[in-house]
Design brief:
By secondary structure, the chain is an alpha/beta fold. The chain is built from 10 helices and 10 strands.
Length: about 270
């Protein structure tokens, strides 16, 4: 009998575990639910999350049983906007804005309606994701703020799906001040479809029932009508706004703003 090499039984076994998914999927009764699940950075739009969400949208489009997509979140934040830690160390400032632009356009172009279910905070680029959705429901715990100007940035690429939704006077105010506002105000200015003081899922129920009653072709063609102007804006402005966003992210002023935010202090220009 051949003796086993000594120590082999005690040798450590190295395995490589896949990182946890940042976007979880579930399907029931014709609705695919995509849940943003990146609590360590408040569901920020990191490269990984953008990639996983794009793949999940592609899968929902291919699924013949999916009539609509619900986009929701874990924790108390729907989406905190750009991943500032990643953005502040990125060696390619252009890639982030272009990746986000592609994701927002993917939501707008998806031939199946995308419904946002918001029970927490939405900040900066997260509002662009919200604006790209066809329908948005927000509960009493939701809050919103366009905070880019406070960081030395501007809501550039997210303006393509966002500005067509917003009352122009409200856009001027919140783009410039970065003030926080609640779900009722978000509904008043056109950012969300419906604000509810009760359970979000109760308000969402009749909407999903209506989508289930519609035919796939009817939904796709009706959505094409409501998104046509937004897609023309993407065609016209993507190159300019992505370049502008990249330039701002690479600026000294924005680096100070992002660093101050991460260090939880006021930026140098604050008075």
């Amino acid at each position: 009998m051949t003796e086993a090499p000594k120590g082999r039984a005690d040798a450590p076994v190295h395995t490589t575990e896949a990182p946890p998914q940042l976007v979880r999927r579930a399907s029931a009764r014709g609705v695919t639910t995509l849940t943003l699940d990146s609590p360590h950075n408040r569901n920020a739009l990191s490269t990984r999350l953008i990639g996983e969400l794009g793949e999940a949208l592609d899968a929902a489009e291919r699924d013949p049983d999916t009539r609509a997509v619900v986009l929701t979140h874990t924790g108390n934040t729907f989406c905190a906007g750009a991943d500032l830690t990643e953005a502040s160390t990125s060696g390619s400032p252009t890639s982030g804005p272009l990746a986000l632009t592609a994701l927002l356009r993917r939501v707008v172009e998806l031939p199946k309606p995308v419904v946002a279910r918001v029970t927490g905070h939405v900040r900066a680029g997260g509002l662009g994701l919200l604006g790209a959705c066809d329908i948005a429901i927000a509960g009493p715990g939701a809050s919103f703020a366009v905070t880019e100007a406070r960081l030395g940035l501007a809501p550039a690429v997210i303006s393509m799906p966002l500005l067509p939704r917003l009352d122009p006077r409200a856009a001027g105010r919140y783009y410039l001040t970065g003030e926080r506002f609640d779900a009722a105000e978000a509904a008043r200015i056109g950012l969300v479809t419906l604000a509810t003081d009760g359970e979000v899922d109760e308000a969402l129920g009749p909407i999903l029932d209506g989508l289930r009653r519609a035919s796939p072709q009817g939904l796709a063609e009706a959505k094409r009508l409501t998104t046509a102007d937004v897609l023309r804006t993407f065609d016209r402005d993507t190159e300019d706004l992505a370049a502008r966003s990249a330039r701002l992210f690479a600026s000294d002023e924005a680096r100070e703003g992002m660093t101050a935010f991460l260090e939880r202090r006021d930026p140098a220009w604050a008075r």
